[in-house]
Amino acid sequence: MSTIRVGHLYPDYLNIYADRGNIAVLARRSAWRGHDLEVTALGMDESIEPGAHDLYYVGGGQDREQFLVAENLAGKAEALVSAVVEGGAALLAVCGGYQLLGRGYRGFHGEEMPGVGLLPLETVAGERRLIGDVLLETDLGPVAGFENHAGRTRLDEGATPLGRVVSGFGNDGESGFEGCRLGRAIGTYLHGPLLPRNPRLADWLLEQALAHRTGGEAPAFDPLPDDLEALAFEVSAGRARARGGRS
Ligand code: GLN
Q1: Any domain includes 63
Q2: Where does the chain have alpha helices with state H?
Q3: Could you tell me the CA-to-CA distances from 166 to 93, 140, 170, 204, 231 in Å, in that order?
């Protein structure tokens, strides 16, 4: 039984739509498997020490909040890339956090925000917000959630998306892709209660974090009953399907 160490980046700034709830899911699902989850806030004044955390979490935010943290976060880019890309820590970045993990984000009012450059993508805000329920097909099975963003994210050639959009807008409303996956890192626009209704995704992140913790293979958790989670997924997926195809 291990302690999974989570580094929660800028919880005071990037926590739109209760993104923090994702942490509660990770804590419960770890506990049900006999592991502790130790969550450390990594704010403006904290540095990132590669190896110190098994899973990083970055939530979403409005352009204003993103602008406040962007430079500070970009200053920690080398350490974060070293921790995740070289060191193999897991990462979940949601919406505003997802945008800032790419090379940069140009906000709605033209503000240029530097990114971490960890994920192979760039984001520019468009005129119309992309809002609504989303359903994806991913390697981890179907994923359902809610999106609300002005940013249009373009993945670099050859980059791996989190999934294909079945219903909803996704990265840019055009490409048919949503999110980005790089090793044990996932970036996605799906926020609010993403993990409560997508337990397989939560477990995958915990399995990857444990692999980092132990230095061994990622374990394969026994499934949990997840009846409520399945119902929550169905509500969300049903709303997304009712929206019809992409756009
Ligand atoms: N401010 C960003 C956008 O509008 C991210 C929004 C969010 O995190 N919900 O694209």
Answers
A1: yes
A2: 21-32, 63-74, 77-81, 96-101, 199-214, 227-242
A3: 21, 15, 9, 21, 19
Catalytic residues: 95, 191
Percent of the chain with pLDDT over 70: 98
In a domain, 165, yes or no: yes
Share of the chain above pLDDT 90, in %: 94
Per-residue model confidence (pLDDT) at position 245: 58
Residue 154, beta-bridge partner list: 122
Mean pLDDT along residues 172-180: 97
**pTM score, whole prediction:** 0.96
Tell how far the Cα of 60 is from the centroid of ligand 1, in angstroms.
Answer: 6
Question: Using one digit for the tens of pLDDT, what is the confidence trace for 162-171?
Answer: 999 999 999 9
- Give the range of the structural domain holding residue 38, as residue numbers without chain letter: 3-241
Q: How far is the C-alpha of 123 from the C-alpha of 54, rounded, in Å?
A: 27
166 in any annotated domain? yes
Q: The domain that contains 225 carries what CATH number?
A: 3.40.50.880
Mean pLDDT across the chain: 95
**What does DSSP assign to residue 10?**
-
Pocket test for ligand 1, best of 10, 13, 62 (most atoms within 8 A of CB): 62
Question: For 23-57, how does the pLDDT look when each residue is reduced to its tens digit (9 = 90+)?
Answer: 999 999 999 999 999 999 999 999 999 999 999 99
Residue 247 lies inside a defined structural domain of this protein: no
- Cα 242 to middle of ligand 1, angstroms: 24
Number of domains the chain is built from? 1
- Two structure tokens written together for 222: 């026994």
Taking the centre of ligand 1 as the mean of its atom positions, its distance from the CA of residue 33, in whole angstroms, is 34
